[in-house]
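Sample entry (274 residues):
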Amino acid sequence: MLFKQKESGSVAKPEKSWLYAWDGVVLYVTQEHLNKSHAHFPALLQIGLGAQFAVTLDHQPRSYHDIVCMAPNVSHSTDSENQPFLAVLIDPDHELYGYVHALLQGRSMCSLPASCLQPLRCELVKLIAGTLNIAQVKQLLLRILKVLSAQEPVHLPWDVRILKACEYIKQQVPHSIPTVANVATQVGLSESRLMHLFSAQLGGSMRQYILWLKVRYALQLWIEGHSLIDLAFEAGFSDQAHYTRTLRRMVDFAPSILKANTVFISDTFALPQR
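Predicted structure, serialized as tokens:
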């Protein structure tokens, strides 16, 4: 494990949870983490900060890990068993995904020992305590990914037309939802070729990507203090219940749980032009 246990047998838990968010990345530090089976568009990095945590993949037995990196759209559940825990969601079109891609090497999941992150122990202690600002958290995440992947990726390993498609979609969502035909015209691909490349390279469909962008935008509005009713409509959901169902399905979080004991720290996401 990353941290030596106290005499009581466990690492001191943080009093609050901390959620840091910036464009393409959501980083969540909590005293405990338990969710049901779900799958989401971003890749996932999980780190047990007090002890090993349990991961259950569909149709596989429960297994215990120190550090797990998971590809996009892998159905799973996690139980930190009441120990401090770090989860990071990284969009597959974000530059940091280059490190994840190098780490996974084509696998859906890889597991690493806690010893990999011993050089960053002091910074991780500060992360648990919530004493880092968002600039420091960004730097720490970059250092974590560099240490784990042990290399410097040159660029994202995707077709430039797919990256262009992602940029176009982000400019539109949530205030306008582009059709596959719209996006295909923008990037010079047939609709069928675009859909195939998009899913094959990013690990999820364009529909999933658009839905995730709406969830991310709603999360930013939530951080800024908007009510659930207002943010649901602003982010393009039919109502509050639709937003809550989507959030549960994609990350298995209820908004009320996040709000209860979580400190939100964010860069302002680049908002789409109306």
